[in-house]
Amino acid sequence: MFSPARQESAEIPARVAIVDADRRVQQSIAEVLRVAGVEVIGTAGDVRSAMELVETAHPTVLVVDPRLPDIDAGRALLSGIALGWPSVRVVLMGWTDEPDGMPAGAAFVSKSAQPEEFVAATVAACNC
């Protein structure tokens, strides 16, 4: 069982959004984070939906698979986030090793990682 996530910032609680083209991955990661006490404010499956989610819900952390639906779309999303919302922290996830050209300050978690690793990476990003 996971222990509840500690949120160090007393002013604004961490708010996490998940972006992945596979709805099952979105739901699985959201549930793992919620069980651990992390507030998940929404999910998106494509770049446009992700940008709208960031615009309207103002997440603290974005957990994202940068292949939306391909790596170029994912790079466009990450560039848009960096330009429009530079305070949003990013945790990248994927099936392979860390992608080339990761944004500065981004963390990486393999999709094959244990649930605790997703929680740890997300909580660490929340508490930066």
Lay out the secondary structure.
Blueprint: E1 16-19, H1 23-35, E2 40-44, H2 47-57, E3 61-64, H3 71-84, E4 89-94, E5 107-110, H4 115-126
Parallel strand pairs: 1-2, 1-3, 3-4, 4-5
Describe this structure as you would to a colleague.
The protein is of the alpha/beta class and 128 residues long. It has one domain: Response regulator (Rossmann fold, 3-Layer(aba) Sandwich), CATH 3.40.50.2300. The chain is built from 4 helices and 5 strands; from the N terminus they run βαβαβαββα. Strands 2-1-3-4-5 form a 5-stranded parallel beta sheet, with helices on both faces. α1 links the parallel β1 and β2. It is globular and about 30 Å long.
Name a few traits of the molecule.
single chain; 128 residues; five-stranded parallel β-sheet
